[in-house]
């Protein structure tokens, strides 16, 4: 546990861990103080997500390339998954879907755009391996197709029976998970030489395996407990802050859930290791779209009050489509400058502004 | 006719020709056995389409590059055209449109995707001339615009008079045919050097001209007769198999009509001649979109019970758009691996699955 | 004024200036002769726009690169801005929006397509600096996102309050203007070396500064007066010619407003200076989308009878999206042939034909 302690000492973000007990204390003493609970939960999730991310990477580093890549690829968005599971258990499907779509958009536009901007302010032109960017944007495109189809069919004039939508959603989920698995085989096994320079090494020293595993287990439980408080308080807190439900799910939850990865992506961009930033941002977006979202649909049959489908609010589908098209157009060349980052951030700002202004009942 | 006989002996697909008389016999004796008629017609069309394709290529090979290219470009999808004409004469516009849109999607996603997968399982990375791919995807894009516009206008809140839609459809059809013709001038005449390596040679020996012409004439008549039986039985058979009308038109008819070209495209991919596969798949899709579809609209004024317009079911427009965008993104680089094929096939699978699950009345 | 006189003698287009007094005379004597007024106004705006364009370039040439670039970038579409302002003052928001969307589409598809065609008929293959094309199409893409979002939200089933749409429109307008400004910093300052070969020199000798400034001031007043007559007469004249309101705003006004720039773009293409044509066409489209349109929204709070929002007719949004996608796909390679020009012109023809046939009430 010395490693853990040492890391906490050197990383100011982790000092926020001190807030974790206060979340539970506040929940006990004043369960109706939604705004306080919301703020405490947000601040507590950020350091926990950072620990989770580091523990996953440490386990991955110890277990060799294939298993390690697989671990990173499945647990890399553990925070997002746990938050969504908490909302799923409470039957808050709108929040689950908004947070899934919001995480795809936040990773694609905000995380990548801010990386390009931060890197571009320091370096005139930055290059990165566009093969990986293309694989990830292709995966995102496939997932976008899977999201468009149910909405496109449902928007026709006749009433779509919910039985059809559920069967279709299960089918789409299975397809997405299979493609995600084949994508891992492609990038880690059969054509790994094309993805060579991505060098997704963690910046810090990996922990010993036992420390990493204990941290992984313990922190997962903590994130699960805090997420539950977060999900319960977020809607009420939104009203206090004058934010719409759509804005909270799409923007706030997505940014909180991705805070740890953003720190890594931004730091990579400032060190001119843009392959790292692109890999984290687009890889994470693809993972949420092709792994987290379909797993949530399938798990809803087990833990949810009723099955969840893949039919999203048309506005969310349009936003995911815009994010995917932006990433496809922008990463086509494999170069980046500060202005490319500005463009992506502005697209994100437009989406966020729309959701912020959206009158209640809009989603 | 010795050539014909020799070919039949060496190509097991052609043994299915033996079923042709049985189609007509079954039609005489049991006109109500829709499922049997449907299955027999499907199995009989496949070898006939193969013969038709070989006869067209043989005539094309004998008549020199310009006329030959033109012949291939107009008769290359003769099977699809004949099937659609049979449906057009019976006034089954929904089936005509579904089979046209389905053929574009099947050629773009299934034929090209399966070629990439089959080739990629044998070769690590395959290259092809992307100039031709770009021309064909640009043509497809133009056709997609022509399909989107009527639906986009019609989806506005006010009622669009059918007179407007018919005038617009005739205008669009003329534009598409003109662009298709100019595209032939561009690729066969003015800038043919850019399309050099496409080497669209038929794999077998061409037949003598008289054999080819007689085969072309005779088989066209047979395909026309069998297609009529196929179109009459397909809807009833669909009910028996539990398939929706949308699925039959979009998937079954398209795959049956394109069987012969698929055999050529797949065989090209296995021989590392991917230019051949890309040329057949995308060239055929472009031909259907810019030549077959508009010709059907114009012919509907002559042979149909009433004029057919170019307004497609919105879901079909979305699917054609998805297919065109997938082809544009995927063929941008001019390289292919097995995973690219998987991605395209999965997009096709998503569309097929949606249509299969679609409740009746969905189209 | 000798310079001015000399130019008029050598440029036959400017001989149309003789019609300017007749416009005002006709307005006085027969204010109800809408068709005559419309035709006179169109013919008078074309030479005035040419003078305006030359005066702006002359001022820009005298004031050095940074200020000159800025001037060109803000006053380059002065004619379009003045026409739109005249319509804005009269509260004709539909005409304003149609002319803005129409100008984007006309510059992107017609001006660029005709340049490619005219150049391609003379030269086998033409190359141009695709960095600038990419910047402009990226800016157009951002503007398209800003146009899609309000319509996408408004097309949902619930009623969107106009207050929301106005707040959103102001926010979007501010974002677009900021991005436009940062784009100028990027292309003129921080990364100007990437845009080197664009050589946007005017073909003729620049005028002395005092001649240019006086011309700029005088002609601006004249354009404003003639535009008012044009806007007042255009709708009535449209009825006479059997044109729909949508066609007039989208096609006629856009082509009249852009006549001067088209002359420069086409002349550049015939001289194999395609960088000039691409710069004018796409640069002008981006300027209208990211500068003229948002300025009009903000100015509507000052000079309009009521505030104008950024919510466009869905058909117009689809057309702008099609134009942006066409430009993105086509300029990806940095090469051009006559057939690329044909494709773009045909896309424009499809849009124009649809608007021409659209029954009244369609917009």
From TrEMBL, chains A, B, C:
InterPro entries with a match to the protein in the record: CaH_exchang (IPR004713), CAX-like (IPR004798), NaCa_Exmemb (IPR004837), NCX_ion-bd_dom_sf (IPR044880)
UniProt-listed Pfam families: Na_Ca_ex
Its GO CC terms are:
endomembrane system; membrane
One annotated GO molecular function: calcium:proton antiporter activity
Which UniProt keyword terms apply here?
Answer: Antiport, Calcium, Calcium transport, Ion transport, Membrane, Transmembrane, Transmembrane helix, Transport
How does this protein lie in the membrane? Multi-pass membrane protein
Among the GO biological process terms of this entry, one is: intracellular calcium ion homeostasis
UniProt family annotation = Belongs to the Ca(2+):cation antiporter (CaCA) (TC 2.A.19) family.
Report what the protein is called. Ca(2+)/H(+) antiporter
Q: Where's the Sodium/calcium exchanger membrane region domain?
A: 35-188, 212-356
Record localization: Endomembrane system
> What this chain does, per the record?
Ca(+)/H(+) antiporter that extrudes calcium in exchange for external protons.
Q: Which Gene3D superfamilies match?
A: NCX, central ion-binding region (1.20.1420.30)
């Amino acid at each position: 546990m010395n490693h853990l302690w040492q890391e906490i000492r050197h990383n100011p973000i982790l000092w926020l861990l001190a807030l974790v007990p206060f979340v539970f204390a506040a929940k006990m003493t004043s369960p109706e103080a939604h705004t306080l609970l919301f703020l405490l939960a947000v601040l507590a999730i950020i350091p926990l997500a950072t620990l989770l991310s580091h523990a996953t990477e440490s386990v991955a580093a110890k277990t060799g390339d294939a298993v390690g890549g697989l671990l990173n690829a499945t647990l890399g968005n553990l925070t997002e998954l746990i938050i969504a599971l908490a909302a799923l258990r409470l039957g808050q499907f709108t929040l689950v879907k908004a947070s899934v779509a919001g995480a795809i958009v936040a990773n694609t536009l905000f995380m990548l755009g801010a990386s390009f901007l931060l890197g571009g302010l320091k370096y005139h032109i930055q290059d990165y391996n566009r093969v990986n960017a293309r694989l990830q944007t292709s995966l995102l495109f496939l997932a976008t197709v899977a999201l468009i189809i149910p909405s496109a069919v449902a928007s026709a004039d006749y009433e779509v029976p919910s039985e059809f939508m559920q069967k279709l959603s299960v089918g789409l989920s299975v397809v997405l998970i299979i493609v995600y698995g084949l994508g891992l085989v492609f990038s880690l096994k059969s054509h790994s030489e094309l993805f060579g320079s991505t060098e997704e090494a963690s910046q810090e020293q990996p922990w010993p395996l036992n420390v990493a595993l204990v941290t992984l287990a313990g922190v997962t439980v903590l994130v699960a407990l805090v997420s539950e408080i977060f999900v319960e308080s977020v809607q009420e807190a939104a009203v206090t802050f004058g934010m719409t439900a759509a804005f909270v799910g799409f923007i706030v939850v997505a940014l909180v859930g991705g805070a740890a990865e953003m720190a890594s992506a931004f730091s990579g961009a400032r060190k001119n290791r843009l392959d790292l930033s692109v890999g984290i941002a687009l890889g994470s977006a693809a993972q949420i779209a092709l792994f987290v979202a379909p797993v949530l649909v399938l798990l809803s049959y087990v833990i949810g009050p009723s099955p969840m489908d893949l039919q999203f609010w048309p506005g969310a589908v349009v936003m995911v489509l815009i994010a995917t098209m932006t990433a496809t157009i922008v990463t086509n060349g494999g170069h980046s400058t500060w202005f490319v980052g500005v463009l992506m951030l502005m697209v994100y700002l437009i989406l966020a502004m729309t959701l912020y202004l959206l009158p209640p009942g809009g989603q």
